[in-house]
Amino acid sequence: MNIERYIQQYNHHRLHQALGYKTPASVVDAGSLWSQSTPGKR
Hints:
42 residues; mainly alpha; flat
């Protein structure tokens, strides 16, 4: 597997436990989790 295919697999198809079993690409597309939950930020 070449590096481009690996990165594509890692970001768009592989589910990540730390991301609530979502792909990194789906989390990025939805927006930052931290910017939505940071208290005191406007």
